[in-house]
Fold Peptide chain release factor 2.
Amino acid sequence: MSEPKFWEDPESAKKTIAESNALKSWTDPADRLAERIDDVTELLPEAYGINDPSLIKELLQEIELIEKDMEELELKRMLSGELDNKNCYLSINAGAGGTESCDWALMLSRMYQRWAAKRKWEVEVIDCEDGDVAGIKSITLKFKGNYAFGYAKAEKGVHRLVRISPFDSNAKRHTSFASVDVSPEIDDDIEIEILPDDIRVDTYRSSGAGGQHVNKTDSAVRITHLPTGIVVASQSQRSQLQNKETCFKMLRSKLYELEVEARESKLKTLGGEKKEIAWGSQIRNYVFQPYTLVKDTRTKYEVGNIQAVMDGDLDGFVNAYLKEFGQL
C-alpha cells in the first residue's frame, strides 16, 4: 500500500485495504490480548507478594475481562466460512395472519435495525411493502459492516410471536409468524450466470416510507428467478435501471449462496454433521403473554427480558448459535 502506484487502480486499492482491515481485525485484538495476559502474569504475583488488596482486585477484574474478550475472539474464529465476512441482505416476510403478522414483521424490522446499530453497521432499506392496515408485508435491509453475514445468518428462519393482540377488541391471545432470510453481498468479480429465459422482471410504483425521496413513477423492480423461485425487489434507488441493477446484485448473491451451501452441505455429510439445520423451520419463539420469554428452538438459549431483545439485544442468541453450529 505504500507503493506510489497503489492508487492508480482505485477499485483494486479498496479491495486490498478491505483485506488488510479484515486481517487486522484478527491480529490486532490477538496482540492486545497477549500484551494484557503478559501484564497480568507479571503483576499478579507481585500484588500478592506485597499484599495489596486493591491491586489484586483490579487484576482479577482484568482477568475476567480478558476471558470475556478471548471468548469473543473464539466466536469470531468460528466465522471462517467463505461468505461470513461479507455484507448481507436481510429480508423479512409476514406470514399468514393478516394485520397481526404484518405488525410482527415491522417489530422484527425495528429489532434488527437496532441490533445492527449496536454493532455499528450501516443499514439501508432496499425494499419495503406496507401492510394493508398496519405494519409491513415485507422488507429487505442491507447490513454493511464487519462479518455482517457471518453473524446475521443465525437469524435465518421462521420467528413466532405470542401476545395479546392490540388489534383485537376482545383482547385475545394471538400467534403470528414471520420469516427471515439472509444472503451475503458477493463481490462483482464473482461470475454467476443468469439466463434471460430464467427470469421474469416486473416493474411497479414505489411505496412505503420516504416522503419526497420515494419515486412515484413505476421505478421499483421485482425479479423472479423461475428455476429456483427466488424473488428479489428494490425500490430504494431513484431510477428503474438502478433498481434493476440492485435486484440483479441481490439475485446473484442468493444464487451464489445456494452454490456455497450445497458445497458445505456435502462436506458436512462427509464429515458427519451434529444436527440438521432446516432454514425454513421455526427457530425462535417470542412470548409476550401470559409470561415473557424468548427461546431459540435450535440452541435452547432463552432470556426473560423480551423488551431488551426487541431493542436489539440479540448477541446472546447469535453467539449460542455460533458455538453450536459455527464449525463443520
Summary: Residues 8 and 120 are 31 Å apart (CA to CA). The chain is about 40% helix and 25% strand. Residues 209-215, 270-280 have pLDDT under 50 and may be disordered.
